[in-house]
Design goal:
The complex is a heterotrimer of chains A (497), B (119) and C (374).
Chain A lengths: L1 E2 L8 E8 L3 H12 L4 E4 L26 H4 L1 H10 L3 E3 L3 E5 L4 E6 L2 E12 L3 E3 L12 E3 H11 L1 E3 L2 E6 L1 H12 L4 E6 L3 H7 L3 H4 L3 H16 L3 E3 L2 E7 L6 E6 L2 E6 L3 E5 L1 E3 L2 H5 L4 E4 L4 E4 L12 E3 L9 H18 L5 H28 L4 H4 L7 E3 L4 E2 H9 L5 H8 L12 H12 L3 H4 L11 E2 H5 L27 H4 L2
Parallel strand pairs in A: 1-4, 2-3, 2-7, 3-4, 7-21, 9-17, 11-12, 11-17, 12-13
Antiparallel strand pairs in A: 5-6, 6-7, 8-18, 14-15, 15-16, 19-20, 22-23
Helix pairs in contact in A: 1-3, 1-10, 5-8, 6-11, 10-11, 13-14
Chain B lengths: L1 E3 L9 E6 L2 E6 L4 H7 L4 E4 L6 E3 L11 E4 L2 E5 L9 E4 L17 H4 L8
Parallel strand pairs in B: 2-8
Antiparallel strand pairs in B: 2-3, 4-5, 6-7, 6-8
Chain C lengths: L2 E9 L3 H12 L4 E5 L7 H4 L3 E2 L9 H18 L6 E2 L2 E5 L2 H16 L5 E5 H7 L9 E5 L3 E2 L2 H14 L3 E4 L5 E5 L2 E5 L4 E9 L5 H8 L6 E10 L9 E4 L5 E4 L5 E3 L4 E5 L4 E3 L2 H14 L7 E7 L2 E3 L6 E4 L6 E5 L9 H13 L21
Parallel strand pairs in C: 1-2, 1-12, 2-9, 5-14, 12-22
Antiparallel strand pairs in C: 3-8, 4-8, 5-7, 6-7, 10-11, 11-12, 13-16, 13-17, 13-19, 13-20, 14-15, 15-16, 17-18, 21-22
Helix pairs in contact in C: 1-6, 1-9, 3-9
The chains are: A alpha/beta (497), B mainly beta (119), C alpha+beta (374).
Bound molecules: flavin-adenine dinucleotide (FAD) (2 copies) and FE2/S2 (inorganic) cluster.
């Protein structure tokens, strides 16, 4: 592997470009290079690993073993990835991917371009937003952030409250406890009925008993500690005006309040949609996971010929399936570019495809068990902030809806909800679900924001220097010849003569 | 308070930077957000509409709550940047009301410092 | 199947169609607007919001001046918030050649009796735009100009029109048009409509409607691109353009800066989509920084483009159909039709209810490119 190449690749072309060096991206690269493809992997972190294996080779902790066996296992795949011939461009943000195989990315503040015949999007997941009153206050963070800070910087926060539902929540609490970090309380919002309804999937889950046991183990670990655990909590609200002062909630009708300046919230993960949406891929609403997912076939192939989506960015599958999907996507693309035959792909993918099918049962069980509460996804309190960037509340959205903002893009134009720097990451799902409720129609009919590149803020200065591609002339793309207009200089002075 | 379990801190080379004027050292490779959190400077910016202090939420680049001013350049996501020697990190105060229209308004930090600072 | 009847059918729910519906409804005419997507989904909802009289082609000055008067009171008239702000528009002169261009334009305008464009020397320029680069030596200003929020403006017309009886049908794509007797029969996938008068305000798709009516036009379409920054400290109150450079931006009240520059992306009207050309956007970025060094601190939040129709002379088509009776066109505004919205509705309403307009529409004839038969 060539790491962070000295002279950045300009106008380089590859067989396959992979965005994201998590388990999905890394395994895709390993498979594709084995067959002789020219592969480039771009990732915005300094080191490969993705979310789960973040810093697995360079942990800031003295005993990374506390992070668990699943984490340590990552060093196998990162080592294999380093050995493979893929070019790894690290610490770069891919701010544009096009269905024409073009990638634009920021390397040390300069935009570079490369092209590939095929693209695998493996950009992973993000945590589901948790829009409750006060979630925007300083002192409230996502539980994933606690894990990110721990893995990358060895940072912990004593005496915090963790609240919500889902395996990642229990994992980080367990990790904190193993490290001797005091956790003030775990407020579990998994409702009683989820335990009942998920039982219908239990047989499926038994097909992956190892994972089931792992999950139960975490809960046991937490219960055995002296951390106070509240179960079946609902109606979560952050207390405080300027900053977090506490967390209130109720359990079977009785009110509770914990005084704390730090709350970590979590209610599962969802695909980080911005790139697949900006690529114009078809997306569907996944009722099981309550999120939008790009439409793909079993081989990760999207609705656009050259684009495949692997791992959590295609719908939440977890680390092992992400790796399997990465391999499957790579095989398909190897067929597409003629490096292997379809028979070879079928043969080599057989195990992974079977594994993926098996995992689906377990996924159904997990998704059912940890299905977040409606009230924590679809805020009803008028004051609750939905769009953190533009500070738009439920009340603002209701007003926009009354004025005709019936669809996410209209509502956005009407209210500015979703127009800020995060480009809908923090409000998009809430908006889709709220509109569906207000319209009394399925979320699938409501749709999502139309997204565009850039994936992150790009400085005007950086963009202004991106002129190394085509001659910079204002060649008129309209067949009508040069035009005067408000979007361009007013040349009418001349025209008028 | 956030605290660091970073046992290798002493082995990693230390970097000097300022956060809101305060001199701070941070191990190489640390994110700007982590350096801020450890220095007790957890406010990242003023929210632009209601002018309230905000702080990092996701630590992984998706929420944009951690936008700060780094070396005179606003809107930099502290959780995605690594510390660099001499870095100047500031609480971001650009809101809907900020104005540089008055001739007496200083623009120095905003125009002069920016330039070669993208490395 | 029932046929929906109205006196007038308008095809296209952009600002022109919505304004037309408003003005007709105001006169008590029953009117229905058919929009294939949603109202203000296209150019009228995503444009740069520039409300510009400055530098208008002479053929358009009268229309544009009237529109500008309307804009000053539009919020009151429509009882809505269009976001219009009269902030003035300044075109910057970067060198003597630019100043020369401005001087001859000024002379020409004065001769015609127009005095709304006023030249600025370097000092005056700097006074109005304290952050302009040192090398800029002057410019020209039009005081009434400004900007509005496109989506809100178009919706404002729509809502005002609906309030007085106009009907808007969204998701209704016109597929065929027939004239039977004195009536226009228009069909969408599932519905049939009938009207005495037919108005073509179909934006980037207007040539297709035009053909169905019987008029052939050399219209083209394209995808002008825009980008908007994250909030910046307020540094420019007027809308800014340049005499001879692809520079165009405005800073909104919320601090975000919308940057144009004339670059065009790739248009795919069949699929309602556009693609951006990032290297062309780069040159827009370059010019913005060159003229306003403070823009070095700008961060681009989003880039986009919309579908717009053009005629070869960059003048719109406005007026009666040549081939058919009681059919009217208003399209191909060539990237400056937003400002004209308030007056175009009036013009069409006049044509329909009075049979004529007080404006000279000769330069906008639909058949102006047809070869004369000798
Ligand atoms: C905060 C967080 C913590 C998690 N922790 C765990 C855990 O401890 N255990 C567990 O089993 N699962 C965890 N998960 C779930 C995890 O997403 C999956 O288990 C697994 O990491 C998915 O692998 P992936 O390859 O699909 O994506 P990821 O591992 O997320 O890899 C995607 C990579 O792409 C990069 N990327 C994204 N966009 C761009 C871009 N525009 N340009 C360049 N690079 C980009 C990301 O930075 C990341 O490195 C976590 C998820 C989150 C959000
Ligand atoms: C990026 C950009 C920036 C611009 N900036 C400015 C500016 O700053 N100032 C300015 O004055 N102008 C500007 N313009 C130009 C201005 O936006 C347009 O001239 C104006 O909006 C045109 O309005 P319209 O109603 O004719 O078209 P549109 O808004 O495009 O409306 C036409 C409608 O017709 C519908 N339609 C088409 N075919 C059918 C059919 N068969 N059946 C039913 N419905 C149909 C379409 O779906 C569409 O909604 C800009 C344009 C763009 C694209
Ligand atoms: S904390 Fe969310 S983007 Fe940095």
């Amino acid at each position: 592997m060539i790491n962070n190449i000295e002279t950045p690749s300009i106008n380089n072309s590859y067989d396959i470009a992979i965005i994201g060096a998590g388990p999905a991206g890394m395994s895709a690269a390993i498979t594709a290079t084995k067959a002789g493809a020219r592969v480039v992997v771009l990732d915005d972190k300094p080191r490969s690993g993705g979310q789960i294996y973040r810093n697995v080779d360079a942990s800031p902790l003295a005993k990374p073993t506390v992070l668990g066996a699943d984490y340590l296992k990552g060093s196998e795949i990162t080592a294999a990835f380093k050995r493979c011939s893929a070019e790894h461009i690290s610490s770069v943000n891919v701010w544009h991917a096009g269905d024409n195989g073009e990638l634009l990315f920021s390397l040390e503040g300069e935009t570079q371009r490369l092209t590939a015949r095929q693209i695998i999007v493996a950009t992973g997941a993000m945590e589901r937003p948790f829009p409750i009153p006060g979630w925007h206050l300083p002192g409230v963070m996502s539980a994933g952030s606690a894990q990110v800070m721990l893995k990358s910087d060895g940072l912990v926060r004593d005496g915090a409250v963790f609240a919500g539902t889902g395996p990642l929540l229990y994992l980080i609490v367990a990790q904190y406890l193993r490290l001797g970090v005091k956790v003030k309380a775990l407020v579990d919002t998994t409702p009683k009925q989820n335990y009942l309804s998920s039982m219908s999937e239990i047989t499926g889950a038994m097909s992956a008993p190892r994972m089931l046991i792992k999950g139960l183990g975490l809960m046991n670990e937490i219960r055995k500690s002296d951390t106070k655990v509240y179960r079946f909590a609902e109606g979560l609200e952050i207390q405080g005006e300027e900053a977090c002062k506490g967390l209130s909630f109720s359990i079977s009708g009785s009110k509770h309040e914990i005084v704390t300046e730090h709350v970590f919230l979590h209610q599962g993960v969802i695909p980080n949609l911005n790139m697949t949406q900006a690529l114009g891929l078809k997306h569907t609403w996944c009722e099981q996971q309550l999120c939008w997912t790009p439409e793909t076939d079993n081989w990760g192939q999207s609705s656009q010929g050259v684009i495949a989506v692997a791992g959590d960015s295609s719908g939440i599958v977890g680390a092992e399936s992400a790796a399997a999907m990465g391999r499957i996507c790579a095989l398909r693309q190897l067929v597409n570019i003629g490096l292997i035959t379809e028979q070879q792909a079928d043969h080599e993918a057989a195990d992974d495809l079977r594994f993926m099918r098996k995992q689906q049962h377990f996924r159904r069980f997990i998704d059912r068990l940890y299905r977040p509460l409606d009230q924590h996804r679809k805020p009803t309190n008028d004051q609750t902030v939905v769009c953190r960037c533009e500070e738009r509340t439920v009340k603002d959205l209701k007003q926009g809806f009354a004025l005709g903002g019936r669809e996410p893009n209209q509502l956005k134009s009407q209210t500015r909800c979703g127009m800020g720097p995060c480009q809908g990451r923090m409000c998009g799902h809430t908006v889709s679900e709220l509109l569906a409720e207000w319209r009394n129609e399925p979320v699938a009919d409501v749709g999502y924001y139309r997204l565009r590149s850039p994936m992150r803020l790009v400085t005007l200065q950086e963009l202004s220097r991106f002129t190394n591609l085509t001659p910079v002339s204002t060649v008129d793309r309209a067949s009508s010849g040069t035009s005067d207009s408000d979007v361009e200089a007013n040349k009418e002075q001349e025209l008028a003569q | 308070m956030f605290r660091s379990l970073n046992d290798k801190e002493n082995q990693r080379s230390l970097i000097n930077l300022t956060i809101n004027g305060k001199l701070v050292t941070a191990p190489q490779g640390q994110t700007v957000w982590a350096a801020m959190a450890l220095a007790g400077e957890t406010s990242t910016r003023l929210s632009p509409v209601t002018l309230k202090a905000r702080s990092a939420y996701c630590a992984m680049g998706v929420c944009f709550e951690c936008m700060t001013e780094i070396n005179g350049m606003p809107n930099q996501q502290a959780c995605l940047f690594e510390v660099k020697e001499g870095m100047d990190i500031r609480f971001q105060e650009i809101t809907e009301q900020t104005s540089l229209l008055n001739p007496s308004d200083s623009v120095s930090t905003l125009t002069e410092n920016v330039g070669g600072n993208h490395d | 199947m029932t046929t929906h009847k109205s006196e007038v059918l308008v095809i296209g729910g952009g600002i022109q169609g919505s304004s037309t519906a408003y003005h007709l409804a105001k006169r008590g005419v029953s009117v229905r607007v058919l929009e294939k997507d949603t109202v203000s989904r296209h150019a009228s909802g995503v444009n740069a919001g520039g409300v510009r009289l400055l530098g208008r082609n002479l053929a358009e000055v009268e229309l544009s001046k009237t529109a500008m008067e309307r804009w000053q009171q539009l919020d009151d008239e429509l009882d809505a918030d269009t976001g219009f702000r009269a902030r003035s528009l300044i075109n910057i002169a970067a060198d003597e050649t630019d100043m020369e261009t401005l001087r001859s334009r000024e002379q020409q305008m004065h001769e015609l009796g127009y005095f709304h464009e006023v030249m600025l020397d370097q000092h005056e320029l700097r006074e109005r735009l304290p952050h302009v680069a040192q090398h800029c030596i002057g410019g020209v200003v039009s005081e009434q100009d400004g900007y509005a929020i496109p989506f809100h403006s178009t919706q404002a017309f729509r809502i005002a029109a609906e309030r007085i009886g106009a009907i808007f049908c969204e998701g209704e794509q016109v597929q065929s048009i027939r004239k039977v007797g004195d009536s226009w029969l228009v069909a969408t996938e599932t519905q049939k409509y009938q009207a005495e008068h037919l108005v073509n305000c179909a934006g980037a798709w207007a040539d297709l409607i035009s053909v169905m009516i019987g008029d052939n036009v050399p219209m083209s379409y394209s995808a002008p691109m825009l980008m908007i920054t994250a909030r910046m400290p307020h540094f420019a109150t007027p809308v800014v353009g340049a005499v001879s450079r692809p520079l165009s931006f405005k800073q909104f009240e919320n601090g975000t800066v919308l940057i144009g520059g004339g670059a065009k992306g790739f248009a795919d009207r069949a699929n309602n989509t556009t693609r951006l050309d990032y290297s062309l956007l780069a040159s827009g970025a370059h010019h913005a920084i060159e003229f306003f060094p403070i823009m070095k601190t700008a961060c681009i939040n989003r880039m986009w483009s919309g579908l717009e129709a053009y005629m070869p002379d960059n003048l719109p088509v406005i007026g009666k159909s040549i081939r058919a009776d009681k059919a009217y066109h208003a399209f191909a505004f060539s990237a400056h039709g937003f400002q004209l919205g308030p007056v175009i509705g009036e013009v069409l309403a006049d044509l329909i209810t009075e049979g004529e307009s007080r404006f000279d529409l000769e330069p906008f004839r639909v058949n102006r490119y047809e070869r004369k038969v000798l």
